[in-house]
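Hi R.,

Here's the chain you asked about this morning:
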Amino acid sequence: MEDLAYLAAPLFLLSVALEFLLVRRAQAQGRTDLRGYYGPDTRASLAMGVGNVVIAFGVRGATLALYFWLYSHRVFDLGTGALVFVALFFAEDLTYYAWHRASHEVRFLWAAHENHHSSERFNLSTALRQSWTTPFTVPLFYWWLPLAGFHPAMILGQISISLLYQFWIHTELVGRMPRWFEAVMNTPSHHRVHHGSNVRYLDRNHAGILIVWDRLFGTFEAEDAQREPVRYGLTKNLTTFEPLRIAFHEWATMLRQVRDAGSWRERLGYVFAPPGWSPDGSSLTADQLRARLAQAPQGAALTLQS
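And here is the predicted structure, written out as tokens:
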């Protein structure tokens, strides 16, 4: 979370409290489709958010130093005009899509990002369940923006705008937006799919602000709440709300697998192959699960797991 997100923190907390009350009222009126809030889960999400802010602030100086160094060697002198802001909006949003998609398709990046998906509930507090290690992975994708000529202050500002936008889409209370909006923008419906552990929903809808990238690059999946309601969480859910375990359990699992691997090929696979990869097929990637699902009898969709 960057400057604007820091300033918006009170609004985030107020919105969480308001949504909690609205969900409780909706449940009292018969809404059985809402999972709502659960105290230990919400507290874990808030703790993860606080940890992310502290760590991101701690590495901020090094990140800015890198961006300013790259900007001093920029390829183009773009300036800071209005058209540059428009260009940055699209460039940053595409970069976010690339980072977010890679964070689902490359194991060590998934180890950093996975904890954001660890809640079995979906509400505004889930948006605050941020990783303690993604502040170290984001620059691996964003370095090209200052090198291309976008000023680092503009980049950080646009990252803040993206984070602010993505907060409101973490809710079950909003159904579908108007069709034109759903076609272009990321919405709660699209993002519910992204947080699903259903096989058909795995690794889909990686958008930040614009859903058009998913439509262009083949990672879009529409929500079908009637035929297949979204199951939130991981294919193998955690049994703890302890922040340290949420933050680092996937890193620990990956490192144990690397340690116990029988060859360098296996070690590299556990680090760089998609999550779920195994040398013997004992666990499956999202693509392998989808392929198996496509061959399964109708009705097996809701039970097939990794």
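One quick note: Confidence is low (pLDDT under 50) at residues 302-306.

Cheers,
M.
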